[in-house]
Amino acid sequence: MTALPARPSVASVRPVVLALAPPAPGVSHGTTLPCLETLGGSRLIERLLGTLAEVGLPSTVVVAPHDAVTALRLLLGDRCRVIGSSGDRREALTAALGAADDDLLLLHDAERALTPASTVSEVLAALDAQTDAVLPVVAMTDSVKDVRPDGLRNIDRSTVVGMQSPRLLRREVLESALARPMPDPGSDAPGTPGAPRPTDTVADSPGISGGVGGGGGQRFDEILAALGNGAAVRTVHGSHSGFAVVDRLSLWQAQISLGLARDTSHCYGLARRA
User: Fold this and answer.
1) Which H/E stretch holds residue 93?
2) What is the fold of 13-259?
3) DSSP state, 179?
4) pTM of the entire structure?
5) Residues in contact with 191: Cβ distance below 8 Å, sequence separation at least 6, in sequence order
6) 97-117, pLDDT tens digit by residue?
7) What are the residue boundaries of the structural domains of the chain, listed by start?
8) For 3-49, what is each residue's pLDDT tens digit?
9) For the CA atoms of the chain, what is the radius of gyration?
10) What phi and psi values does residue 145 have, to the nearest 5 degrees?
């Protein structure tokens, strides 16, 4: 593997936005994608593209299902290149590689549009010559269970983190991840729980959990596939604003985050969540 400079310039990184989440009742409002939801006067995907531009990244490649390409091109105009693919993440990433010849790709799920610029900058700054990929993670707060034939087993949440966007990968690492076959449904996930702490460099499979677009079941996730190939993945602190807006609840959370709605959950005896 050819080592890149310890701190590659922002201009050498190609941002790729994956607009793959299916429409959801109460979010898409007749549009084909949740990222086309209007929030505070602008579409979610427009907010995300604005954040990427704020960091100084070059023009973005947007990958979306074929039936959403026309709507995205009309909305985004010449601000970025929109290409079509299936809703499958592996095929969408393959299409992105065909549309960009850059050595570094920054993959961002369109639904995580409220991710702050500071998180993007921290991901970009974390790549060094010994690292193959970087991603932001957040501590797991939900109860996590290991499903086994003899029942459920508790998992120490301190050993598990949730993956967010953006993910910065070397091109050759992403190509190798896409070439990796999906694991047999009956086999255990590669590695054992043992979470990376933020700023750790991980050369084996950590206890990480994916969100939209991967991480669970047989859904492809490029980070898990890269780890399975022995890639060194570095983690940085994620943001509580980096959640995916894919349903009515997460849309409400986004409105609260932007001050467009008020959290009234305590009025109904619901537990508040940090």
Assistant:
1) helix 89-99
2) Spore Coat Polysaccharide Biosynthesis Protein SpsA; Chain A (3.90.550)
3) H
4) 0.82
5) 204, 205, 206, 207, 227
6) 999 999 999 999 999 999 999
7) 13-259
8) 555 566 788 999 999 999 988 777 755 667 899 988 888 899 999 99
9) 18
10) -125, 145
